[in-house]
Task: inverse folding
């Protein structure tokens, strides 16, 4: 087999693996508040989110074009570079998932690609104006916009329903959350699945099977990415769902509906204009806004601070992983380099997964009381009430905690 074809296959497999991690990493964006408020049962929520992510992936390809052409000089793209960038994204996604931090999959991917590009040809290979205008500026602005919109929407909801019977309004908002959470899932599919489409698009351009003037990825790329993300979403990234639903703000149904509606509006607008927006940062901003907008509500700023630190270091650290991976693959070279690079990715991913089993979070304990600073807010030494119930029931559901 030709070495370039071998590399292309590895790149496509790794890209779909990234899409899979993006799915379970970002399930929380759509469903954390609905699960926390009791509007949807955990497994029902992730199944609904998976179906709508699948549909959303087919609705637009604008963001895919942004990733493929707006961030680095396509004339210098190589399969080694694309693979190294993907490794940076996958490793950062898995590490932040292990820690229960809802960080940006978008920025992890962009950081990995930019880092690999700098390692390959230097900083001149990066379209810095594109990175700023298409990624960094929208991400920074979107957090504050989502926070403001979420706070205003929550304040308005509580203002309008003031004096009404709480039980009746809660029940109504729980039903409304099903619609608003579904809209966020659909919006997530239109935005995030396309990022992996864009990466595979880049790889196909580099290999020569797609013209560099092409505007839309091949249909098989769209279908494969949609399925990979939907599958990851269905398995449920329970650790991050727990952090966003229980760790940041104690969510009620009115807050949840306001936050989800705010998130969907911002995400759909970004997809329309082709911005590679972080849905994680948008949804986190909306959830914080719901805490600020509720009379007497509060935000756990310690948890929010750790998220902010993770956001700040995502681009450089994912870029560092991408750069190191490129150097390893490039300097070993040929089949051995590709095999070593892929083997390291599998090894690191396996180690992170094994570590996560020591403090498992799943549908049984995702809504347990938040206990503080430990990973996902659970005491590692004492199984939670939900975990005990799940163990007693002999649950064998497959999930990604």
Result:
């Amino acid at each position: 087999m030709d070495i370039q074809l071998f590399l292309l296959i590895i790149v496509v497999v790794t890209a779909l693996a990234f899409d899979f991690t993006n799915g379970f990493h970002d399930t929380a964006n759509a469903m954390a508040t609905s699960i926390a408020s009791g509007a949807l049962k955990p497994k029902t929520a992730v199944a609904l989110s998976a179906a709508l992510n699948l549909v959303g992936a087919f609705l637009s390809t604008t963001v895919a074009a942004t990733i493929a052409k707006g961030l680095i000089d396509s004339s210098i793209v190589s399969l080694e570079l694309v693979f190294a960038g993907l490794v940076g994204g996958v490793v950062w996604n898995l590490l932040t998932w292990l820690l229960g931090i809802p960080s940006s999959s978008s920025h992890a991917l962009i950081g990995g690609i930019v880092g690999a590009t700098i390692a390959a040809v230097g900083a001149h290979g990066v379209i810095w104006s594109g990175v700023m205008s298409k990624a960094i500026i929208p991400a920074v602005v979107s957090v504050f916009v989502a926070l403001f919109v979420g706070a205003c929407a929550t304040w308005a909801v509580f203002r309008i329903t003031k004096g009404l019977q709480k039980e009746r309004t809660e029940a109504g908002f729980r039903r409304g959350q099903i619609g608003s959470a579904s809209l966020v899932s659909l919006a997530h599919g239109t935005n995030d699945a396309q990022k992996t489409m864009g990466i595979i698009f880049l790889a196909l351009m580099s290999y020569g099977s797609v013209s560099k003037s092409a505007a839309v990825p091949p249909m098989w790329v769209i279908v494969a990415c949609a399925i990979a993300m939907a599958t990851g979403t269905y398995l449920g990234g329970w650790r991050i769902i727990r952090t966003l639903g229980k760790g940041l703000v104690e969510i009620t149904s009115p807050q949840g509906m306001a936050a989800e509606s705010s998130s969907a509006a911002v995400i759909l607008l970004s997809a329309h204009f082709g911005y590679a927006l972080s849905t994680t940062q948008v949804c986190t901003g909306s959830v914080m806004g719901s805490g600020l907008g509720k009379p007497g509500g509060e935000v756990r700023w310690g948890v929010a601070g750790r998220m902010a630190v993770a956001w700040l270091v995502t681009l450089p650290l994912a870029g560092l992983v991408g750069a190191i991976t490129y150097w390893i693959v490039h300097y070993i070279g040929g089949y051995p380099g590709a095999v070593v690079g892929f083997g390291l990715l599998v090894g690191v991913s396996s180690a992170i997964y094994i570590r996560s089993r020591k403090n498992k979070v799943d549908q049984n304990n995702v809504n347990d009381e938040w206990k503080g600073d430990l990973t996902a807010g659970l005491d590692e030494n004492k199984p939670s009430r939900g975990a005990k119930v799940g163990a007693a029931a002999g649950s064998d559901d497959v999930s990604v905690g």
